[in-house]
């Protein structure tokens, strides 16, 4: 097995999360970079564990999940205040 193949999942995870972070940052949707990165890493890692290997699909689904997460948090905070 080649060294490239062993690193492929890590590279795929990194590239997918980078695409998602770049998009969300340019859209002004990231307020806490650490929280956003952890959320995106978890989502992409979960999808990769299910067998997904398309980096753009991973990034787009992670972006959509993050946006839903932010909307849900905004609703929760508005209900608390």
Ordered list of secondary-structure elements with their pairings:
Elements lengths: L2 H24 L6 H17 L5 H26 L1
In brief, what are we looking at here?
The chain has helices at residues 3-26, 33-49, 55-80. The protein is mainly α and 81 residues long. The protein has one domain (3-80).
* Helix count from the secondary structure assignment: 3
Domain unit count:
1
- The counted number of beta strands is 0
Helix fraction by DSSP (H/I, runs of at least 4): over 70%
Rough outline: elongated
User: Roughly what fraction of the amino acids lie in strands?
Assistant: under 5%
This entry's quaternary arrangement is: single chain
Arithmetic mean of pLDDT: 91
Note down, in words, how this protein is organized.
- The protein has helices at 3-26, 33-49, 55-80.
- The protein is mostly helical.
- The chain has one domain (3-80).
- The longest helix has 26 residues, at 55-80.
- The radius of gyration is 14 Å and the shape is elongated.
- The mean pLDDT is 91.
Which labels suit this protein?
about 80 residues; about 0% strand; single chain
